[in-house]
Automatic annotation (TrEMBL):
This is Endophilin-B1-like isoform X3. SMART domains: BAR, SH3. The gene is LOC105903573. One of its GO terms (cellular component) is cytoplasm. The keyword NADP does not apply. The lineage of its organism: Eukaryota, Metazoa, Chordata, Craniata, Vertebrata. Residues 403-463 form the SH3 domain. Residues 24-259 form the BAR domain. It comes from Clupea harengus (Atlantic herring). PROSITE patterns: BAR, SH3. The keyword Membrane does not apply. Belongs to the endophilin family. Keywords: SH3 domain. Residues 268-381 are annotated as: Disordered. Pfam families: BAR (PF03114), SH3_9 (PF14604).
Length: 463
């Protein structure tokens, strides 16, 4: 107990003498022992390194996580030694939003499919960003934090001990100056020698520590900086590759869309719907029954004969065949004397009845009121790559006969009109199968887990 009291009294006396010496130095009433210039430079360099390292570390944390609330939350979890919850980043959230919108608008449509592709690319960017953040935190921020919280604290502790040794040395020098008696002077000289040796020993320890740490820290921090640059290079290279692939996919969507628009403009469709071309060969049809103008042909509607003098039982003014003869109502001219009061197509070339129907004549310009690709063989005429309705190519005929399965490339976008049909996207490849009993103009298409009827005219079978 006596030993502890004496030790406490000695420590209190030492602290008091240090405080007095420090106060006198501040007031300029006492001399101060200066450190070696080399040691001073080492201490200043270590302090500057600590300040710069702390600034770089904090700014890197801001780069990796701009949200200060999230940074504070991660700091608390780190101090509590708990795992922080995993949350999706902004790019991943954007990707999920795009994918959901694409599925809602329809993956079979160009815009919906493009949204899905963009969403997948954004999620890839988010995954790359997550890897970049984790790698940077491990390879760059963690070593810098270890230096600030570990090595630099050791340097600060040794520097504080050196500062105390210097105060003790200067206090001993002051007491030696004030000593008048021989015994007091001898004791002061002994205390001064002890303080000087302790100060020199601590200065050497601090110098060696600073020299070792400065060389080690520069090498270590340079390696961490190289790791950060490598991580950033990998991250931005991945992002660039993802965006190049996405740009190519969007470019293909745009080219398909422009090609479809060009085909529609070339077809000159008045109803906005492109239909298969009709052949002018004998007996060829396009699936729509229309009246023939050949002698004796009918259009499926029973009408009175237009022979000379024939009537339909209704008394009407006779249509004179003389030039300028009229009945007050403008009607197309029929055969001599034939009247039924109903306007019908004249058998004369180029005559019309107000309803556009296809003429059996091969003369250019005959129309049926529905815009279709021209079958003209004049120079410069454009023929769309569509199959003739009701006719099948040899490959389709073989598929019908064998009831087999083939791959087919989609020529144009097609939107299903009922649940039994399958929507198509231009340039995609699907599997088609001929089903017995199905209309010859349709095949059973399959894409992934979706299946439905698809029109032959929108497909190109692949060998």
């Amino acid at each position: 107990m006596d030993f502890n009291v004496r030790r406490l009294a000695a420590d209190a006396g030492t602290l008091l003498s240090r405080a007095v010496q420090y106060t006198e130095e501040v007031l300029g009433q006492a001399e101060r022992t200066e450190l070696d210039s080399h040691l001073e430079n080492l201490l200043d360099r270590a302090e500057a390194t600590q300040q710069c390292t702390e600034k770089i570390m904090k700014q890197t944390e801001v780069l990796l996580q701009p949200n200060p609330n999230v940074r504070m939350e991660e700091f608390l979890y780190e101090k509590l030694e708990k795992m922080a919850p995993v949350r999706p980043n902004n790019l991943e959230l954007l990707g999920e939003c795009m994918i959901d919108a694409g599925h809602e608008l329809g993956p079979g449509r160009a815009y919906g499919n493009a949204l899905i592709k963009c969403g997948e690319a954004e999620k890839q960017l988010g995954s790359a960003e997550r890897e970049f953040v984790q790698s940077s935190a491990i390879n760059f921020i963690a070593p810098l934090r270890n230096f600030i919280e570990g090595d630099y604290k050791t340097i600060v502790a040794e520097r504080k001990i050196l500062q105390n040794m210097r105060l003790d040395l200067d206090a001993a020098k002051t007491r030696l100056k004030k000593a008048k008696e021989a015994d007091a002077r001898s004791a002061a000289e002994t205390e001064l020698r002890i303080s000087q040796s302790e100060f020199d020993r601590q200065a050497e320890i601090t110098r060696l520590l600073l020299e070792g740490h400065n060389s080690t820290h520069e090498t270590q921090h340079l390696r961490c900086l190289t790791d950060l640059v490598d991580t950033q290079t990998t991250y931005y290279a991945q992002c660039h590759q993802y965006m190049v692939n996405m740009e190519k996919q969007l470019g293909s969507f745009s080219s398909v869309y422009c090609a479809n628009n060009n085909q529609l403009s070339l077809a000159g469709a008045s109803d906005g719907i492109s239909r298969p071309s009709t052949s002018t060969a004998s007996g060829a049809t396009d699936g729509i029954s229309r009246p023939s103008t050949a002698p004796g042909a009918t259009d499926g509607i029973s009408r009175p004969s237009t022979a000379s003098g024939a009537t339909d039982g209704i008394s009407r003014p006779s249509t004179s065949t003389e030039p300028g003869a009229t009945d007050g109502i403008s009607r197309p001219s029929t055969a001599s004397g034939a009247t039924d009061g109903i306007s019908r197509p004249s058998t004369a070339p180029g005559a019309t009845d107000g309803i556009s129907r296809p003429s059996s004549s091969t003369a250019p310009g005959a129309t049926d009121g529905i815009s279709r690709p021209s079958t003209s063989t004049e120079p410069g005429a454009t023929v769309l790559p569509l199959h003739t309705a009701g006719q099948s190519s040899p490959s389709v005929n073989e598929l019908h006969l064998s009831n087999g399965t083939r791959k087919a490339r989609v020529l144009y976008d097609y939107s299903a009109t009922c649940n039994s049909e399958l929507s198509l996207l231009a340039d995609e490849v699907i599997t088609v199968t001929s089903v017995p009993g199905m209309d010859s103009d349709w095949l059973m298409g399959e894409r992934g887990d979706k299946k439905g009827k698809v029109p032959i005219t929108y497909l190109q079978l692949q060998s």
